[in-house]
Automatic annotation (TrEMBL):
Source organism, top-level taxon: Bacteria
Family: Belongs to the sigma-70 factor family. ECF subfamily.
UniProt name for this protein: RNA polymerase subunit sigma
Lineage, uppermost ranks: Bacteria, Pseudomonadati, Pseudomonadota, Alphaproteobacteria, Hyphomicrobiales
Ranges where the RNA polymerase sigma-70 region domain occurs: 30-94
Species this protein is from: Rhizobium wuzhouense
Amino acid sequence: MQDPQRVLEQALKACAAGDRAGLATLYEFEASRMVTIAVRILRRHELAEEIVQEAFLQIWAKAWQYQPERGSARGWLYAVVRSRALNALRDGRREELTDTDSLERLQEDAGDSLYVDLFDDLDTSSRLRACLSRLDEVRRKTVFMAYVSGYSHGEIAGRLKLPLGTAKAWIRRSLSALRECMA
């Protein structure tokens, strides 16, 4: 069985060369995970599907920009979908959380397994996994909440029942440690 990372890299190269089979491979391997990421950020499944579709159009058009020496193909794909989802939030295409149920869900500590699964899904030999493993579990979770799920610092503080300043400091220090480790 071929390495999934290698398959994704080859599929991106095929897209860059105009081969639609490469895009089909990317879609087959990653679309469901990309929708999951977009749903975590947007909290609206139909909008998440739209964002993933837009992300695939962008991936098709800009596959030539992928550089394997700068990171994994999967990371590049997820960065595209995350960026598009966060742009949708900034553009106001997300309904505001105003009902009580949504506010209560925000404060629940549900979804912890997602962050553990995301960490476990990283390639065991990847530099990012090695650097993330140096962070304690809660600080690693704050990074995932901010950069995978798209939570604001205030939302992270609310979900983890931390003071806002503490959440901000943990994220800032964790990113600094990751930058230093990755350099």
